[in-house]
Structures are given as structure tokens and as C-alpha cells.
Design a protein that fits this description.
The protein contains 50 helices and 62 strands. It is an alpha+beta fold. Strand 10 and strand 11 form a beta hairpin. The longest helix is centred in the C-terminal third of the chain and has 30 residues. It is extended, with a radius of gyration of 59 Å. It starts with a strand and ends with a helix.
């Protein structure tokens, strides 16, 4: 809680009336302009400090009025514009009138604006003259202006375009973080004052601004003063604003029109939007622009208006009379503090209204926006009409002009202190509320000073304001002043008759009257004391150099209890100590610190303040004086330091399961901490939510996804701290909304200060708590609920109990309270068992409590497999409903959670849980809720939930039975057939047959319609209904009626419609209706067919019907027997067609014999196969030449797993089947059966007969047998392998895999012969012969001599072919030698077996013909003809060469023709060619 102290400025009445106020942006300096109220014109400007003290040399008075005052953004330099055009500067050095020469402006100054970095100043006057000045690093205007423009019209507004951020600030921040003293000094506001800025941004280039004139024109002014018109409005301009980042210029006119213009780099603009703002026109409006995209206006109304331009929404904030504002109060002026998020508004009745911005709802934790995020505070009451209000300086001071005076308002946190059962709470600047808990008294203390601090003990109350200290003592029912003395100490502590104050490097020990009686000196290294705290007989001191020292006060003089501890040596990035507290034994000190940020990018504009004070650390440190160790607990992670203690370091997910309360502590930082004033190991801390880190955001996102819970803003956490066990979490709970802050701890209570306006009692009132507590609230510790007024022995026992329970030592906990008979203690221990999950202990506690119902429920819950589910039942019995709910959720027992919600009356939650997680019990939940509503008398809502549970057809009529009119309306409205039927039955019971028939017809209940009509005697109408609808039940009922009336034919008809054929058959047999009997039997069941067949058989007539019925009923043997007996062969044939393998084998055999007799061989074979007489079936197929189909063969194939036939029989059968298939030419099927029989050789032979090359190759590949490889290769050689390389490849592969190298050699030999005969390619033939020789040399044959003979033959072939190949190659180089070798080759006796003689002669003939030796060529041709009389010469020699030779030697061309003829004949028939050639050769000479 905070209050605003008001300080009136130190100004005399002769100065006149204040007209303008201006705060420095950083320093607490307020400039005030006064205008003379006397007949003598004139005015002055003065500068004041934060408490209104006047600065001696800061008074500038002139005989003319000041019009504008403007502070340099960083320097202590003030520019003042006067009505005569004079511009005067003030700084700490004094007044300077020479920076801007007199006469530069000759009219009233209307614009005086500094650039954001202070390097430029723009001045303009009423005559329209605008000048741009350069400013040096000391804030002084330099020399002649950079630019000057004369617009001829009054200039009204000026706004600088924000420059792009430079790198200097970032570099400076990095230097400061790394420890650069100069950089730190530049960020340190305390050391500013020597003319240096807190930080120096580098000179930004391209500084430009926008100015407006009275006619609504806006100009863009460059750094050099060059001007460019960018836009023109319809009227005078009231406000110019610039939206940084989006590069948008915003203009508000006097008529309250807002327009937005996009601005280019060169200053050109384009209008984006124009809108009329709400508000009174013609009055002075105060308009402010917030950089977050918010426009705030005050136009002389009872409220203010806000426009959020980013979200495109607007709303109004008004004053609330319930908070103390007056009716009809008008707001004159407004100001916004961005660092605090507060809008301040001055009213016409002397009150200051404050709206504070809150982004998160304190109750739900939900994010809020719009109007709801602004909370109106209690007003600050001043006097008169407030005409101007301004926030300013880095200290966020507020100044107002009201009733001719200037006030400075400084927000001060309300002082509060609790000690020794006395609490003091500041309620006004000079007023304290005192509460004495030991006596229950409450007093108000008024002082003559503005209190900045208070310290209380049971015997003294000390207040101080930083300059003066006053001591009060209780005197009867009131207080008296016991002493007063001047003292500049900012902190103070009291112990017995001594007051401890601080001054540089020492602590003063004073009497209550202020006399110093002892000095506690600190060295320069230890620093200046700035924090004091006393607990018991020990004083702890914290210094500005982060040292901590403890003193013992139990003796006459204070003695050091330990050496000073330097925290900076153990804590990196330590900024300063924020608070120190010690326990009652003086052996443990808790410390809160501020740390320095390591990330310069997060430094805001006021970076210096952040660098000086740092940000709150998420850790609370504990200094163990005896062990000289420093440990901590980190609220950000929920973990202690590694050297701390026994608290387990587990993962976050496991932590939340094992310690659900720990998850609520994460992502926070401590703000208040206290030790119990008597119990040395009990510590309490208040922690509030911090800005989420990405890790915490992810965790909270997951939590909100699973369960819709919100995180509270502040929690209170208590710990037990011992050297043996370290840090132990004892209790945590959210701070109540009505509580302001934690004030202290003294068993059995926590003490809290209450928020302003919270006059109600604590949100958790405890029995016996005094009702007089208003400003201070107290809450009992968890283990002391119900024991608040216990004696010291019980209190100590309960503390020990709580401690042992916390460390998990249940035995010691039992010993601590074994003598305590209070049920509240045992109940509290049972509640602790919910936290510790100790159900065994809980049973003992419930027994001591006498809680029989709870013990039984706990015993019954033991069947649940999840521990959390059993613990939840304990929590339910103890009334800990929130814990029970959390436990059920954590173990995902949503079914039990649904029951829990129902039992606790939380029906809406039960339904939501069932809809989302427990769909199995959703209808049950609806039903139970409906029953609950029915019990409450809410029939309308109960009816809706009965419908959702789908039980309305029974439950709604039962519920509304006493209200028949409502029930009839509901039945007609729902249009549900079941309800119509129920209503009809009800009407029938009431003898209202006509209405009943109507509703039966609506419900389409034809049985009931027929029944009622029969009852009424309308049997004809009943017959019509039964015939039209065909309803079986209605037809059956009607048939019974006709049977009772002996109308057999109608009865049979309706029995048939009802498909009650047995009844119809019964009537037919009784009445002799044999014709109907056959048809009905065929429609009925097999049993009825059997009965009818027996009927016909017994009568001995129509035996064909008996056979058919036996057949249809499935009794084939009886049907066949009867058919044979009565010689019904047609029926027998029909029966045989339906027999299958499931039929009786004997029956199948008998039928097959019958079919063979009647030449039905195919069906007979099928029956033989079904009877498993496979050999007979095969014999019949061969005998009658029946084709064995694949289906038949599969039926005859016995599976390998068959136990009826042996494996040998199975193979023999399969081979017999395959043999039959071979005889019938079905080679593929034969192959399949041979394969199934395991005879792959026969299978391959069958496949070879089929000639299916593709399947042969595939079968060979999968069989992998030597014989099959050879058979396949032999088969492939019979194909045209010369034209298919794939076949040749397979031949070689199969011979190789079959290890038939002799056959492979023969194949290579054949390939060589093909190459020679077909293509004359002796090179390839040589390669083939070489491969053949290699294979044959590796082959193994039965006859070694035969092998050697074949090798010799191959060797001869190789030699001959190789010689001819070499001759051909030699011919290219030495033709003569080649011809000579050809002649030698022709002398070889077995040449023609390998090398064709014709090819050798062809080489000789072609050579001599080409050389022109035609005679020699002719000679060789004649030799060739004689050696090869049956060969066509043209097959070896080109026809043209032959013609040329014959022509050269004079041989007639006729021979050539004959030769050509021979060639043609040889192409047609080889055999005939030989005969013709022989005859011609032989007859040639005769011609």
C-alpha cells in the first residue's frame, strides 16, 4: 500500500500565479513559470527540488512574461522562451542570455523543442520564423543556426521524428556489465551532476522534425532547416504525434478530427485514416500520446477517453462517487506515467484521480485488456481547481497547479512493522494505526512529521522521516512522547532501551533521547551500513558493499557475533543487498538481493536506474553463521543450492507429482521474509510472480492445457531450516486478495497488512479471532488451526510435531503429541497425511478422532490401485475438497472425480468432467443430476437432463404422473413413439379406448391396435390393419382370435403372415389341407419339414413330397433311401447335386454308383472325390476320358497335415494325378502335382513338354537340381538362341550350375561354328573355341580317352581358326606373306572341318582381282569350284568381283546367270540345291 506525500514549493506570494510547469526527464528538477498578477507586467521562472526546495541560483525574472519552458533531455539545462522573442538558458552555472543573440526572434516564442538526443534545438515565434540550432555535448547552443525558415504565419506545434537507434547505447551497456567504471558512472544517476549525461548516445544524423502553422499546414523540416509541405488539414491543429516503428504521423485538429499519415524517407506523406474523436469541441482539450499505441484525451467532461490504435478500440474511464469523488466533477488535465502504468487526472474540485493499469486479474490470473485493465484508485484530495498536472523525472514525481500554488506529489510506500505482538500500520502521511495483540487494544497515533519509517516494540514506538526521529511510549490508554532528536539515518532498529541508527561506516547506539552511547564501526572495505534488523538479542547489519555482520545484544554493550561476510565473493552479478533478517538464535541470516542484468538488450530507457538498483533476484540466501556457509533457495526453479540440504533435486514433472505445492512456487521472486521471533528454525517468505521465462511459459502452457487452473500472483511459503536437514518446505498458500503484504511471523500466527479500503475481516476467519482487527490481519499456521489459544507447552509440542512431520519422521511426530487429547491436533495430523500420503498414519488419526465413517471409507478405498485415489478419499472425508480434486486429476481417475463432484454438489463440474474425460459415465451423470433436480422441485430442468440421459421415456412419466395435463403436453410435444405407446396404455387402463387407439396409431403399435379392436369386436378392422401393415405380432394375435372362432382358413392365413408356420402346419394336418401343408412346410423350419415329411410318408401318398421335404430339411440319407425305395430317380439326381465332402461317405459312394449307371460321369467323379475315393475317381476319368480340371485336382490333393493318409500314399496319389494330366496333355497341372509329390525331374519333363520357356527358366531357378539345370539347358539349345542373347545367357548359366562342362564346351563349339557359318566372324569364333577348350579341360567324363579325343579335336580347331585369324591380321601389313600362308593353309588336310575353304579362296580371289591379276583370280575360282562343287561361289565372293573376273578372262556371262540361279534355288531348298548343282556341274562340260 502506498500514499502520496504532497510538498508545496517554496515560492513567495509575490512571484505571481504559476502558468507552466515542466519536469526534467531524468533529474528531480521542476521548472515553474510565474506571471505577475499585479499591475506591473512581468514574470519569472524558478527551479525546485523534489520536496519543493528552491535552488538558490535558479530564479530568472524579467519584465515580460515567460511563454515556454523546456528541459534538455539529459543535461541540467533549461531553455525559456519569452513573449518578446528572447530565449534564456539556465544551468547549474547560472543564467545565460548570450547563447541565442537578442533580436533573433522578434515575436513571442511559440516553439522551443529539443531533439530526443539533445543535439538539436528548434525555436519558433509567432511571426512564423523557425530556426534550427546545433547543441554541443554540454547542452550549449553553438554559433550560428543550422537553418532558418520564415513561414509568415504563427507556428504552433513541433515534433521530432525519432532517429534510428544507434549502437552507442548497446556498447555502453555491455561495457557497464563487464565492469567499466566510467560506463557504470554514466548509468549511475547519483553521480550525475558534473555536466555529463547518464549515457551518451552518438550523434544521430538526419535529424528531422514536423511543424504546424495556424492554418492547419504541416511541414517537414530537415536538419539544415529546409522545409517541405507534407499535408494540410481542414482547421487549426491541436496536437502532433508520431507513431514510432510504423512511421506514421498523427494529427488532431481543434475540431477533434484524428488523421493518420504514412511518412516517407523524404518527408512525403499519404493519408491512411481519418476519424472524428468523441468529446466536447470548443473547449481546451488535453491530449497525450502513449508510445504503446494509446491516445488519451480529456475534453472537459466527467471522464477521459482512450483510443487503442493498435487494437482499433476505444472506451471511456469515469470517476466513481463511491471512492470519494464528487458529483459533476470535471477532468481538466491528464498525464501518463509509463513506468508505473498510471494515468493521473486533475479535476475541477481539487482532486487527483489515478487509474492504474493491471494486465492480469488478481483473482483468476486471466489476462485482461480494454477498459477492465484500468483500476481507479482512491482520490488525492487537494484544494481549488487543478489546471495542470505533470509526471516527471526518473523518480516518477507528480506536480500539479491548483488554486494558484504548485504541489509536488511523491508516492511513498506505507510504513508498517510488526514486533513483539505490536503492529504499526501507516494510514496517512502523519498518522499510524497501532494494534496491541496482547491486550487487544487499538490506537491511532498522529505525528507532526511525514512518517517514512516506523519501528515498534512492546514498550516503544519510534517514527522517523530521514531527518528527525521521535520516540513514543505507552502511557495508560494513550501514548506519550518520550524523546525526539535530529537524525539523518534512513533505517532504524530498537532493542530494549537502545536505538540503532546508521551513518557512513558505522552504526550508532543511542538512548531513547538520542544520545550516542556506542559506535559499531565498519571498515571502508565493509562499506556503509544500510540495513538493520533485530530478532531476539541479535542485530544483523547489511552494507552497501554487500557485507553482512551479526552483533550480540544480550550484554550491556553490543559485541560482534561473527566476522563480516562478503556476499560478492559468493554471488556472481550481485547488485546490492535488498534486505537482511536474522533468527532468534543469531546463527542464521536470510538475505534478499538485487542482481545486475547480464543482457544489455533488456535495458530500457531508464537503464541507469536499472543498472544502479538491479532486478530482484529469485533466490533467498541463508548465511549459516556457525558453519560460515552460504546457501539459497531459488523460487524460479523451485530448488535449493547444491550444497544446501536434503531437499531432492528432481525433474520438474516429477516434482509436480511428488510435491504438487512446489509447482506453484516456480517462476517467482521473494519480496518479504521473516523469522519467527521465538522459534529459530522457522522461516517464512512472500514470493510474487515474475516475468515468465520461455521454460516457465512452456510449463504453464502445458498445465493450462491439461487442467484449467490459474497461477496466483503471490504465495506465502514457510520453511524449517536446520544444519542437519537443511531447507524443508513446511507450508505454502496463496496470499489472500485482501492482504497487502506479509508483516511477520510469531507462532501460532502469520501477520499481514490489509489493503486500503478492505474493512472486512480476513477471507479465512478463524474461531476466536478478535473482530477489532482492521488494518492488520492474522492467519494461523496450518498445524495450529484450532489451537490458537494453546499454552507454551502445547505450542512447543505442536512445533516439534510439525517439524518431524515435515522431515517425514512419523514416529517422532507421534511422540510429540501423544499427550495431546485435542481432536483438532489429530485432525490436523490426518490432513498432513494427505500431503505425505501416509495412509497408515491416517488410520490411527481417524481412530483418535473417532471418525468412524472416514475410517470405513478409507478401508473401502483400499481396493483402488492408485495411491492418489486412496489419498483423495481421505481428503474427502477430512473436508479437503480442493486436495481431493487435485489428487483425482493427477492420477487421471476421472470416473472417481465425476462421483466426487456429484457428491459435493458440484454438478456443473461433474458434467464438464464427464463430457471431457469420462464419457462412459456421462449419461449416468445426467441421470443423477436430473434426480437431484427432481428432489429440489426443478422439474423443468430435471426433464431436460432425463432426456440427455436417455431415460426420459420412463422417468418423465413417473415424475409428471400427478400432473396429467403437463404430462400430456410433454407427450405430444416430444413426438416419441415410446411415450405415445405409454400414454396410450395409460388411457386404455382408464377405459378411454378411442383416445388409446389414436395414440396407438401414432406410436405405430399395430399389435395393440389389433388387440383393442378385437376386444371391441371390430375383427374386420383388425384384419385390415394386420393385412396392411404385415406386423407379425398383430397377425399372430388375430390368427389366435380366428382359431378360437374355428375360422381355420383365416387362422392359417394370419399364422402364415405372422410366420408362425408350425401353428399353420398344425391346423393343416388337423384339417387335412395337404396342399397348403407342402407350401407351409417349405417356408418353415427343418423340424417342421421333417414332421410334414413323416406325415406324407405315413399316409403313403405323394411320396415325392416326402422325399423333397426330407431333402430340404437336410436329411439326405432318409431322402435317398426313400427315393431308391420309390424309384424317384429325378429326385435322386437333384439330391446328388447337393452332396459335398461333408456328406456321409457311404451316401456319396451310393450316389456315385447311381450316377455312373446313368452315365453322369462328371458328377460321379465329384462325389467319388468327396468320398475320398481318389483312385476310383482317377480310374473313372481315364476310362471315360474325363478331363481333370485344376479344381478337381486340388480336391484330390491331400494336405501334408492330413492324419488319415500316409505321406507315401499322398505322394503316390499325386503322381497318379500328374500321370493322368500328362496323358491328357495338361502339362502345367502335371508339373504342379509332380512338384507337390516331390518329383521335380518328372515335373521338369512335364514342363518341357508344355514348351513354356518362361516357366521352364523360372522352375529351373527355384529347383536348383543338377539334372534339371542340364535338361533346361538342353531344351533351350533347341530354341533359336542365336537371336536371343538372354536364352544364350541362361544356357551358359544352367550348364555351369549343373556342372555339365562337357556339354557347355559343346555349346561353345556350336557357337563358334555359328559365328563362322553365319557371320564369318572368326575372332568371336576363336573366343568361343577358347572357352570351349577351358570348359572341356575342366570337365569330368566317364571315358578318359573320349575326353582326350575331344580335347584334341578342339585343339586342332583352335589352331586352324587362330591361323586364319592371324592371316587376316597379317594381310593388313604384309599381303604377300599372308597370301603365301593362305596357300599353305589350303594344303591342310582337315581345313574344311574348321575354317571354310571358301573363305580362304575368297581372300586370294579378292586380292588378285583388286590387283588386276584376273587370270590368277580366275584360276583360284576354278580351283574353288572343283574343291567345293556344291557351294554357291557368290556366298563367299562379291557378285561384282565375279562379273569382273569373268569379263576379263572372256567367260560367258551365262555361267554367271547359272550361278545366280543356283544361289536362288539354294535359298529356297537346301536339298534340291545340292542336286541341281551336282547336275549342272556334271552337265557343264557337255554344253
Amino acid at each position: 500500500m502506498a500514499v502520496y506525500f504532497d510538498h508545496r514549493i517554496d515560492a513567495s506570494d509575490t512571484m505571481g500565479s504559476p502558468s507552466e510547469i515542466a519536469w526534467h526527464r531524468i533529474h528531480p528538477l521542476l521548472a515553474v513559470a510565474f506571471v505577475s498578477t499585479s499591475s506591473t507586467p512581468g514574470g519569472c521562472v524558478d527551479v525546485y527540488l523534489e520536496q519543493g526546495e528552491h535552488i538558490p541560483n535558479a530564479h530568472i525574472e524579467r519584465p515580460f512574461q515567460p511563454m515556454l519552458i523546456s528541459w534538455h533531455p539529459s543535461k541540467r539545462v533549461l531553455a525559456i522562451g519569452w513573449e518578446t522573442g528572447v530565449v534564456i538558458f539556465w544551468s547549474e552555472q547560472g543564467v545565460d542570455e548570450q547563447q541565442i543573440a537578442a533580436g533573433t526572434h522578434r515575436a513571442q516564442i511559440t516553439i522551443l523543442e529539443w531533439s530526443s538526443n539533445g543535439t538539436r534545438l528548434v525555436s519558433a515565434d509567432k511571426a512564423g520564423v523557425l530556426i534550427v540550432w546545433r547543441v554541443d555535448q554540454h547542452g550549449r547552443v553553438q554559433g550560428s543556426p543550422l537553418g532558418k525558415q520564415d513561414y509568415g504565419k504563427q507556428l504552433t506545434h513541433c515534433i521530432f521524428k525519432p532517429p534510428a537507434p544507434g549502437e552507442d547505447l548497446v556498447q555502453l551497456a555491455k561495457a557497464a556489465v563487464s565492469g567499466d567504471e566510467n560506463a557504470l558512472d554514466m548509468f549511475n544517476w547519483r553521480k550525475v551532476g558534473k555536466g555529463d549525461a547518464p549515457f551518451k548516445a552518438g550523434l544521430q544524423q538526419g535529424i528531422t522534425c514536423f511543424v504546424s502553422v495556424t492554418d492547419g499546414t504541416v511541414y517537414h523540416v530537415s536538419e539544415k532547416g529546409k522545409s517541405l509541405q507534407v499535408l494540410h488539414t481542414d482547421g487549426p491543429i491541436r496536437k502532433l504525434m508520431y507513431m514510432e516503428g510504423k512511421e506514421i504521423l498523427m494529427v488532431v485538429t481543434e475540431a477533434l478530427f484524428l488523421s493518420q499519415h504514412s511518412v516517407g524517407v523524404d518527408g512525403t506523406s499519404q493519408e491512411l485514416m481519418k476519424v472524428k474523436l468523441s468529446g466536447k469541441t470548443g473547449q481546451k482539450a488535453d491530449i497525450i500520446w502513449v508510445e504503446s499505441g494509446l491516445l488519451i484525451t480529456a475534453t472537459g467532461e466527467i471522464g477521459i477517453r482512450l483510443w487503442d490504435l493498435d487494437k482499433d478500440e476505444n472506451y471511456a474511464l469515469t470517476l466513481d462517487e463511491q471512492l470519494g469523488f464528487s458529483t459533476g466533477e470535471i477532468i481538466n488535465c491528464i498525464s501518463y506515467c509509463e513506468s508505473k502504468g498510471i494515468i493521473a487526472a486533475g479535476t475541477s474540485k481539487g482532486q487527483v484521480a489515478l487509474w492504474r493499469k493491471t494486465l492480469v486479474n488478481s483473482l483468476s490470473g486471466c489476462k485482461i485488456d480494454g477498459k477492465d485493465q484500468w483500476k481507479l484508485q482512491a482520490p488525492i484530495d487537494l484544494e481549488g481547481n487543478i489546471i495542470q498536472i505533470k509526471w516527471g523525472s526518473s523518480k516518477n514525481l507528480l506536480s500539479v497547479i491548483s488554486a494558484g500554488i504548485v504541489l509536488i506529489l511523491n508516492e511513498q510506500v506505507m510504513s508498517a512493522h510488526f514486533n513483539q505482538q505490536v503492529a504499526a500500520m501507516q494510514v496517512a502521511p502523519n498518522q499510524l494505526n497501532l494494534t496491541f495483540f496482547s491486550s487487544g487494544n487499538q490506537q491511532m497515533l498522529r505525528t507532526d512529521m511525514h512518517v517514512k519509517g516506523v519501528y515498534v516494540t512492546k514498550e516503544t514506538i519510534v517514527v522517523w522521516n530521514g531527518k528527525h526521529t521521535t520516540v513514543f511510549e505507552p502511557f495508560g490508554p494513550s501514548l506519550r512522547n518520550a524523546g525526539s532528536f535530529p537524525c539523518d539515518s534512513c533505517v532504524l532498529a530498537v532493542h530494549e532501551e537502545s536505538i540503532y541508527t546508521v551513518e557512513p561506516n558505522r552504526v550508532q547506539v543511542r538512548t531513547l533521547q538520542g544520545t550516542v552511547k556506542q559506535l559499531l564501526v565498519f571498515s571502508e572495505m565493509e562499506g556503509n551500513p544500510c540495513h538493520l534488523h533485530i530478532c531476539g538479542n541479535f542485530l544483523v547489519v547489511g552494507t552497501d558493499t554487500s557485507h553482512v555482520k551479526v552483533f550480540d545484544l544480550s550484554r550491556r554493550e553490543a559485541k560482534p557475533h561473527c566476522n563480516a561476510k562478503n556476499l560478492a565473493e559468493h554471488v556472481p552479478n550481485l547488485g546490492r543487498i535488498a534486505s537482511v533478517k536474522c533468527n532468534s538464535n543469531g546463527n542464521n541470516v536470510s538475505i534478499l538481493i538485487n542482481r545486475v542484468s547480464e543482457d544489455p538488450n533488456r535495458l530500457p530507457y531508464a537503464a541507469g536506474l536499472a543498472m544502479l538498483n538491479g532486478t530482484p533476484d529469485s533466490r533467498v540466501f541463508f548465511y549459516d553463521v556457525e558453519m560460515d556457509t552460504l546457501n539459497y533457495f531459488d523460487f524460479e526453479t523451485g530448488r535449493p543450492s547444491s550444497e544446501s540440504c536434503s531437499m531432492p533435486r528432481v525433474e520438474e514433472s516429477e516434482m509436480e507429482k511428488a510435491h504438487p505445492e512446489m509447482s506453484e512456487l516456480l517462476g517467482r521472486y521473494p519480496v518479504n521474509h521473516f523469522w519467527d521471533q521465538n522459534e529459530a528454525k522457522l522461516f517464512v517468505c512472500e514470493a510474487v510472480s515474475a516475468v515468465s521465462t520461455p521454460k516457465q511459459s512452456k510449463r504453464s502452457a502445458n498445465t493450462e492445457t491439461n487442467y484449467p487452473e490459474y497461477k496466483v500472483n503471490a504465495v506465502v511459503v514457510s520453511f524449517f531450516i536446520t544444519q542437519e536437514h537443511g531447507l524443508l518446505l513446511q507450508e505454502s498458500f496463496p496470499k489472500a486478495v485482501s492482504h497487502e503484504a506479509l508483516m511477520g511471523l510469531e507462532v501460532p500466527y502469520y501477520y499481514f497488512s490489509k489493503k486500503s479500503g478492505e474493512t472486512r475481516n480476513d477471507s479465512e476467519p478463524m474461531p476466536g479471532a478478535p473482530s477489532i482487527l482492521q488494518m492488520v490481519a492474522k492467519r494461523p499456521l496450518r498445524d495450529f488451526v484450532g489451537l490458537e489459544d494453546c499454552d507454551k507447552t502445547t505450542r512447543d509440542a505442536m512445533l516439534n510435531f510439525s517439524f518431524y512431520l515435515t522431515i517425514g519422521d512419523m514416529d517422532e511426530a507421534f511422540k510429540s503429541i501423544k499427550l495431546i487429547k485435542s481432536e483438532a491436533v489429530w485432525e490436523n495430523m490426518a490432513k498432513m497425511c494427505v500431503k505425505t500420503r501416509r495412509l497408515d498414519v491416517a488410520k490411527v488419526c481417524l481412530g483418535n478422532m473417532g471418525h468412524a465413517r472416514g475410517a470405513r471409507a478409507l478401508r473401502e478405498a483400499e481396493k483402488e490401485p492408485e495411491l492418489d485415489a486412496r489419498v483423495a478419499m481421505l481428503a474427502v472425508q477430512l473436508g479437503m475438497l480442493e486436495d481431493a480434486e487435485r489428487l483425482y486429476r493427477s492420477c487421471k481417475r476421472f470416473d472417481l472425480l465425476t462421483k466426487f463432484y456429484q457428491a459435493s454438489g458440484q454438478w456443473q463440474k461433474a458434467i464438464e468432467n464427464a463430457e471431457g474425460f469420462d464419457r462412459v459415465h456421462l449419461r449416468t451423470t445426467y441421470y443423477n443430476y436430473a434426480k437431484h433436480l427432481e428432489a429440489l422441485g426443478d422439474h423443468h430442468l430435471a426433464l431436460s437432463h432425463y432426456e440427455k440421459s436417455d431415460t426420459h421415456r420412463f422417468e418423465v412419466p413417473r415424475m409428471l404422473l400427478e400432473d396429467l395435463q403437463t404430462l400430456e403436453i410433454y407427450v405430444n410435444k416430444t413426438k416419441d413413439k415410446s411415450l405415445w405407446k405409454w400414454w396410450a396404455q395409460y388411457l386404455e387402463s382408464q377405459a378411454d379406448m378411442d383416445s388409446a387407439l389414436k395414440y396407438y396409431e401414432k406410436a405405430q403399435d399395430y399389435l395393440s391396435l389389433v388387440r383393442v379392436h378385437c376386444y371391441l369386436g371390430n375383427i374386420q378392422k383388425a384384419s385390415e390393419i394386420a393385412n396392411e401393415t404385415g406386423n407379425h405380432a398383430a397377425s399372430y394375435h388375430l390368427a389366435r382370435q380366428y382359431e378360437a372362432r374355428d375360422d381355420v382358413r383365416q387362422a392359417i392365413h394370419f399364422y402364415t403372415r405372422a410366420q408362425a408356420y408350425n401353428n399353420a402346419i398344425r391346423l393343416c394336418k388337423d384339417s387335412g389341407f395337404d396342399d397348403h401343408l407342402m407350401n407351409l412346410s417349405l417356408l418353415s423350419s427343418p423340424e417342421d419339414m421333417m414332421e410334414a415329411a413323416r406325415y406324407y410318408e405315413e399316409k403313403g401318398l405323394q411320396m415325392d413330397r416326402a422325399v423333397m421335404l426330407y431333402h430340404k430339411s437336410g436329411h439326405f440319407s432318409k431322402a435317398i433311401e426313400l427315393a431308391f425305395a420309390t424309384q424317384q430317380f429325378n429326385a435322386l439326381q437333384l439330391i446328388a447335386e447337393e452332396l459335398d465332402e461333408n456328406s456321409d461317405p457311404a451316401l456319396l459312394s451310393r450316389c456315385s454308383d447311381f450316377l455312373i449307371e446313368h452315365k453322369q460321369f462328371e458328377k460321379a467323379v465329384e462325389l467319388l472325390v468327396s468320398a475320398k475315393k481318389y483312385y476310383e475317381a482317377l480310374h473313372l476319368c481315364l476310362e471315360q476320358n474325363l478331363t481333370i480340371t485344376e479344381e478337381m485336382a486340388e480336391k484330390m490333393t491331400v494336405s501334408k497335415d492330413s492324419k488319415e493318409l500316409s505321406e507315401d500314399f499322398r505322394r503316390e496319389l499325386l503322381e497318379r494325378i500328374a500321370d493322368c494330366c500328362m496323358r491328357q496333355g495338361n502339362y502345367h497341372l502335371a508339373t504342379k502335382k509332380y512338384t507337390q509329390a516331390g518329383n521335380k525331374i518328372k515335373a521338369m519333363r512335364a514342363l518341357l513338354k508344355s514348351g513354356d520357356t518362361e516357366k521352364i527358366i523360372f522352375f529351373t531357378g527355384v529347383s536348383r537340381q543338377k539334372e534339371i539345370y542340364i535338361m533346361a539347358a538342353n531344351y533351350l539349345q533347341s530354341l533359336d538362341w542365336r537371336k536371343d542373347p538372354e536364352i544364350m545367357k541362361n544356357i551358359i548359366s544352367f550348364y555351369t550350375k549343373g556342372r555339365a562342362l562337357d556339354l557347355l564346351a559343346g555349346f561353345y563349339d556350336a557357337c563358334a561354328q555359328v559365328e563362322i557359318d553365319e557371320y564369318q566372324n572368326y575372332e568371336k569364333a576363336l573366343g568361343a573355341l577358347t572357352e570351349a577348350y577351358k570348359c572341356l579341360s575342366k570337365a569330368k567324363m566317364k571315358s578318359q580317352s573320349e575326353l582326350e579325343e575331344r580335347l584334341g579335336q578342339l585343339q586342332n580347331k583352335l589352331t586352324m581358326v587362330k591361323k586364319f585369324v592371324q592371316i587376316r591380321r597379317l594381310y593388313e601389313e604384309d599381303p604377300k606373306e599372308a597370301l603365301k600362308q593362305c596357300e599353305n593353309l589350303l594344303m591342310e588336310p582337315e581345313l574344311d572341318q574348321t575354317v571354310r575353304t571358301g573363305d580362304v579362296y575368297a581372300l586370294l580371289i579378292e586380292h588378285h582381282a583388286q590387283q588386276g591379276s584376273f587370270e590368277v583370280a580366275y584360276k583360284y575360282m576354278e580351283e574353288m569350284t572343283k574343291k567345293l562343287p556344291s557351294v554357291n561361289v557368290t556366298y563367299y565372293i562379291n557378285q561384282q568381283i565375279i562379273d569382273a573376273v569373268y569379263k576379263a578372262v572372256g567367260v560367258p556371262i551365262k555361267a554367271n546367270i547359272v550361278m545366280e540361279k543356283v544361289r536362288h534355288n539354294s535359298a529356297e531348298d537346301g536339298d534340291e540345291v545340292e542336286e541341281d548343282v551336282a547336275e549342272d556341274s556334271y552337265n557343264g562340260p557337255e554344253d
